[in-house]
Specification:
Layout lengths: L6 H15 L5 H14 L6 H12 L1 H9 L6 H17 L5 H12 L14
């Protein structure tokens, strides 16, 4: 009654299938699941899943690169870039570059001990 055409269930199953690509023990198995996602999502009758499928197909090379490069991701770089961009927007036009740089370093958490590299034991 709340989901008469089982769209929520199908969307959840699609989500689980996509998620499982990243949780396989071997990257080659994950790539197989990812390839199945690429071949099936764009034909889904649920518009949002079909759009996701078309987007993943458009980014096929980048999507599959995770499985071809040993699980390498630029997620960390993107996270830092997002922090820098948010800081830039909130800086309201700092005129002094040194102050702007310090604000970015503070926002990015360079002062937090758990974000620094571990020091080798003597």
């Amino acid at each position: 009654m709340g989901d008469p055409h089982a769209e929520v269930e199908v969307a959840w199953l699609c989500y689980q299938q996509l998620r499982s690509a990243y949780h396989q023990e071997r990257l080659t198995d994950g790539r197989v699941v990812a390839a199945r996602v690429l071949e099936s999502f764009h034909t889904c009758p649920i518009p949002e899943i079909a759009r996701l499928g078309r987007t993943l197909r458009a980014w096929r090379q980048q999507f599959l690169a995770y499985f071809d490069t040993g699980g390498v991701s630029n997620g960390g770089t993107e996270a830092i870039n997002l922090i820098i961009e948010k800081t830039r927007r909130s800086a309201h036009g700092f005129r002094n570059f040194d102050n702007y740089r310090l604000r970015i370093l503070l926002a990015a958490g360079g002062h937090k001990p758990w974000r620094t590299a571990p020091t080798p034991a003597s």
